[in-house]
Amino acid sequence: MKNQKSEKSLISPFFVFFLIQGNMIGVGILNFQRSLIDHAGYNAWISVIVGGVTIHIILWMIYRMFSSDQEILDLTLINKLCFGKALGLLFNLANVLYFYLAGFIVFRVFIEVIQIWMFPVMNIYPICIIFIVIIYYTLAGGLRTLAGISFWGSILPYMIVFPLFFFVLKYLHPINLLPLFNHTFKEIALSTKSMVFQFLGVECLFMVYPFVKTPDKSAKWGHAAVFFVTFIYLIITLITFMYYTEGQLKHIIWPTLTMLKIIEIPIIQRLEYIVVALWFLKVLVSVSISLWVAGRVLRTTLHTKLRWSLLMFLAGFLILFIFFNDRGSVRRLSELYGNIGFYYIYLYIPLLFLITLFKKKRKSAV
Amino acid sequence: MNQLKDIQELKKQAGLSSDFITTTITLANQKLFLSYYKTLIDEKWLQDHFIHALQNRNTEIELKNVEDIRAWIPIQDAQITSEIKDIQFKLMKGHAIIQINENDRECMLLNLASQIGVRNDNTTENEFSVVGPKIGFVENIDTNIHLLRCQLNIPSLIVKEMTIGTVSKTKVVIIYIDGVTNEENIRNVEQRLSDIDFDVLFDSSILDQLISDNSFTPFPLFVSTERRDRVAYALISGQVAIISDGSPYFVTGPSTLFDFFISPEDYYLPWILGSFFRLIRIFGVIFSVYATSIYVALTTFHYEMIPKDLLGPLIFSRNNVPFPPVLEVLFLEITIEFLREAGARLPTKIGQTLGIVGGIVIGQAAVEAALTSNILIITVALSALASFATPIYKMSNTIRFLRFPMIVMAAFWGNLGIIFGTCFILIHITRLKSLGHPYTVPFYPLRIKDLKDSFIRSSYELTNTRQGYLRPISLIRYSPKKNKKTSGFEEEE
């Protein structure tokens, strides 16, 4: 299948990998362990694998939807096809809100990380504003720039941060992982539910797909991205479990960062200062992609100018920031978003999938 | 400038200048009217060859029109025209006007352009290399093309001429290799050059800016070089080269960010050493951009990051410094910039003295007066040194410029500020384009095949193809010889 969009705005299938994993790995990787062990304890690493597998299935469904019908170009059209014009519009607007919220949560949580780990007493508003300016600068370059920055924004942090975990290896206690299976199936399922929050972001493919040069060839990169994310989460989960005892982990809010504090190399210590700063690149990618998707959905439904909707979105960030200025409210908001995301992934997408499948069957029967 | 109507008007206007000569040559019963700028032509040549030949003519043909002069003396570079625009243009390029009658519309233009003022020495002035040829370009365009043609001995090396500049009427030349360079690049360059409206073209670096894709950028979008090997290499890999008359610098494009960190010397050394030096250079750039801003970030916000063994000396050296780190750093960085700027403007001999005065005396005195810490002096000096490791001067200017926003950002938000600055740079270079090609290729968009000649310079067995991102018409440069690997285990008996 070829794309009708002009060649200049298209990205090569390879960059689907960077966009999807860029949107999936955000700020959650710094603190997901605590909620993960709530139910399944130290068996929760199984939940990471289970979660990853389900996301593979969801991704397969998305690709299936696109390839089943040539008329389906993006999410807005799927909604229209499945729910009719009026209801479809409603769903589209809900999607805008959903992606916007996704962007805001990552933005807000990262600002919190900065407040806690780097500048506890500094006025945070200038940082917010420059963050927003950088997001705008990224988005003003279009999807190609977004793909570019998701490339750099992944390569650079990974190259520097992931090798750091090797320094932690000597402090690990593999015995922590035993016994391997001492939790019920239900507990593991509940842990998987909390893990889904970390996997949210794969749905950005709904709007990215029409901009890929040969979209059907991007499937392998999409799955590679999901596999990569699962793998990274699994590794970090295992390392954290072997590093902390279960009791400790219940009291540590940012296990990944706390773990890195132990590293000492001759010319530098307290590496979390570098990691938090570098992670900004990663977070920028995640927020920008979410906002871009929200803007795209809004544009295709209401034909608004992308520039103005993005400016509104970013101004909204500042306003929302004033309302959600303490830890409690941020946490409630992320829990809300986690719940919505759970239903989005496991209910909404399969529903869309079934309806399109059904419609196609009927079409071919007629 | 109003358009002149005919030769008479042209001569009248030109006659206002004292170096415009109008003479009459009388030959037996015949008169020839000769007009030229004596400052533009080679008067000796005129005297020795033209007038001398006229007087010693052996034919007795009567001169009815200018065409007959050709019969008198065989002159190759002469042209007969009545087009006033052409006459004016040629006159200003050092041609002489020859008329039979003073009021003729038609005349002969004789090329007598002199080469006075062009330097003969063509060793490179700014881009040095230890090994390899030292041939550079000079301020004369024909010499430059001659130098290029000497190296690329193929007829498919195409030279296309244009005239740019409403006042300077500068000859600009586009050079490419037919069958290698993608036609879209050539078209693009031609289009952009013909769109230019400018008065005086002093140097090709003006062209570089006039045809660039984005003028709001500190990054140079085209490589400009005075080295012959560099231009030849650019041409053979499928780029387009542009040069204007009177400039020793070729502009080649489309360029990528990494082209600016490549030195021709990399290709003259064994590939392992070439790659090593290239890596050193890239590390130098990174160090140069970040070193001082990291110092600011660490000493302003993140003392905890410095291990205690290192923290001691650092605190000790900053003990008596009365300024915050950012002022201290800016003070020193600007001093270095003063030194560089002064050194570049002063005559060579004074420049050297100044370097010693600036480097040693100011540095030493600043530390003793407790204005700066000596650790900072080391850092600033190293980063200045590292910035000069960039082979292309334009890029090393950019590198030095980028330090300042970085320092300011680091002063505001420490490490985070440095990352903010890095983000801006990354987004910026991702958005940049050179002749419509992405600037950060082969990294973004990623082209694995082209990576073999980017960070490292692979051996010639591997780099037999051209860089794919330039979309050359033929990809293969040469067929590499397969080296037989002789294994030490199987020794010949």
From TrEMBL, chain A:
Keywords: Germination, Membrane, Transmembrane, Transmembrane helix, Transport
GO BP terms, alphabetized: spore germination
Membrane-topology descriptor: Multi-pass membrane protein
Localization annotation: Membrane
One GO term describing the cellular component: membrane
InterPro entries, per database record: Spore_GerAB
Pfam families: Spore_permease
Gene3D superfamilies: Amino acid/polyamine transporter I
Transmembrane segments: 12-32, 44-66, 87-111, 117-139, 151-172, 192-212, 224-244, 273-294, 306-324, 336-358
PANTHER family (alphabetical): SPORE GERMINATION PROTEIN A2
Family listed: Belongs to the amino acid-polyamine-organocation (APC) superfamily. Spore germination protein (SGP) (TC 2.A.3.9) family.
Protein name: Spore germination protein (Amino acid permease)
Biological source species: Paenibacillus prosopidis
UniProtKB/TrEMBL annotation, chain B:
Keywords attached to this entry: Membrane, Transmembrane, Transmembrane helix
Protein's UniProt keywords contain Transmembrane helix: yes
GO biological process, one term: spore germination
GO cellular component labels: membrane
Top-level taxonomic group: Bacteria
InterPro entries named among the record's database cross-references: Spore_Ger (IPR004995), UPF0353/GerABKA_families (IPR050768)
Transmembrane parts of this sequence: 271-298, 373-393, 405-429
PANTHER family recorded: LEUCINE ZIPPER PROTEIN 4 (PTHR22550:SF5), SPORE GERMINATION PROTEIN (PTHR22550)
Family note: Belongs to the GerABKA family.
Name of the protein: GerA spore germination protein
